[in-house]
Design a protein that fits this description.
Helix 4 crosses helix 6, helix 6 packs antiparallel against helix 7 and helix 10 runs antiparallel to helix 11. It is globular, with a radius of gyration of 29 Å. The N and C termini lie far apart (67 Å). Helices cover 75% and strands 0% of the residues. The longest helix is centred in the middle third of the chain and has 42 residues. The chain has 299 residues and is mainly alpha-helical.
Length: 299
C-alpha cells in the first residue's frame, strides 16, 4: 500500500474518534515529556546554585546529576511502559478487524501486561544503548583526533579523524536501523502474547526486514508537517494510526505467505499420495469396471 493510500485510510479509521485518539497519544507522550521537563528543571536549579557547570551537563561528571538522571529515567520507564503498550493496543485494535472499543484501564492495570511491557521497554533501551555505544566511541575519538590534529597540524591525526568520523556516521545509521526495528516490538507483544520478550525482540529483526524504509517514509510524511506546531493535535493521531495500520497489514502479509508455504509445501501437492517405488513407476490398468470396483471373481 502506498503512503498516500495508507494515510487516507488512516483518516477514515479516525473519523469520529480523533479526540479520543489524541488523548490516547498524549497519555503516553505527555508522561514521557513530564519527566523530561522535570529533569531539565532540576538541572536548571543545579546550574543556578553552581552545583554543576554547563559543560558538565553533557559529560555527566557530577554525581548528583548522575543520580537525578538515573532516578528520573527509572521513574519514566515505570510510568510510560504500560501507557505505551495501551496506546499501541488501542491503535492496533482500531486498525484490525475487531473494531470494539478496548478498555484501556484493564490493559494498564494488568500485572502480567505491565511486567511484559516494562521488561520489553528496558530490553529495547539496552539494545539501543548497545547499538549506540560504537557511535559514541568513534565520535569521541574523532573529536579528540581533530582537536589534536588542529593543534599539532599532524596530517596523520586528521586522516584518522576522517575515518573515525565516517565510522561514527555508519554506527549512527546502524543505531537508527535498530531503533526502527524495535518500533515493532509493542505490536509483536500484542500479536504474540504467548512468546517471551526475548523471542519477540529477536523476531522483530526478521519481521522488519525490508520494511524499515516504508516506516521511515511514514514518519517523514506525517512528522514533517508537525514542524508548524499547530498541526500536532491533528497529525499526531494520524501518525500513530498510519504506523499501526502498516504493522497490521504487514502481519497479514506474513500470514498469507506462511499460509502459502504451509499449504503448498514448497511446491509439492498438498496431501498427495506417493507413488510406490515400482520399476515401471505406473499403475496397472484394471481389466474391467467390476474389477475396479472390487466385485466379481478376481481369481
Amino acid at each position: 500500500m502506498k503512503l498516500k493510500q495508507l494515510t487516507a485510510y488512516s483518516d477514515k479509521l479516525l473519523k469520529g474518534k480523533r479526540m479520543k485518539a489524541l488523548l490516547v497519544c498524549l497519555s503516553y507522550l505527555g508522561a514521557a515529556l513530564f519527566f523530561r521537563l522535570a529533569e531539565g528543571a532540576l538541572y536548571s536549579i543545579m546550574l543556578y546554585f553552581n552545583a554543576v557547570n554547563p559543560a558538565g551537563l553533557f559529560t555527566g561528571e557530577s554525581l548528583p546529576q548522575q543520580v537525578i538522571s538515573l532516578l528520573l529515567t527509572l521513574m519514566r520507564c515505570l510510568t510510560t511502559a504500560p501507557l505505551a503498550y495501551a496506546a499501541v493496543y488501542w491503535y492496533y485494535q482500531l486498525c484490525s478487524e475487531n473494531r470494539d472499543e478496548p478498555q484501556l484501564s484493564s490493559v494498564i492495570l494488568n500485572p502480567h501486561i505491565y511486567g511484559r511491557s516494562l521488561f520489553a521497554l528496558l530490553m529495547s533501551k539496552l539494545m539501543g544503548a548497545i547499538f549506540l555505544a560504537p557511535a559514541a566511541v568513534f565520535g569521541v575519538t574523532a573529536f579528540r583526533l581533530i582537536k589534536s590534529g588542529m593543534e599539532n597540524s599532524a596530517e596523520l591525526h586528521l586522516f584518522m579523524a576522517v575515518h573515525a568520523a565516517v565510522m561514527t556516521i555508519l554506527s549512527l545509521a546502524l543505531w537508527i536501523r535498530a531503533k526502527l526495528t524495535m518500533a515493532a516490538v509493542p505490536y509483536l507483544l500484542i500479536r504474540f502474547p504467548e512468546k517471551s520478550v526475548f523471542r519477540v525482540i529477536r523476531s522483530s529483526f526478521g519481521f522488519m526486514k525490508g520494511r524499515r524504509f516504508e516506516l521511515i517514509k511514514i514518519f517523514i510524511g506525517c512528522s514533517a508537517p508537525m514542524l508548524l506546531i499547530v498541526t500536532i493535535p491533528f497529525l499526531l493521531p494520524k501518525l500513530f494510526a498510519a504506523v499501526s495500520l502498516f504493522i497490521s497489514i504487514s502481519f497479514k502479509e506474513d500470514e498469507y505467505l506462511d499460509g502459502n508455504k504451509t499449504y503448498c509445501r514448497l511446491g509439492q501437492a498438498d496431501s498427495s499420495a506417493k507413488l510406490p517405488a515400482w520399476t515401471k513407476r505406473r499403475f496397472t490398468p484394471p481389466s474391467d469396471t467390476a474389477q475396479t470396483a472390487g466385485y466379481g471373481d478376481n481369481t
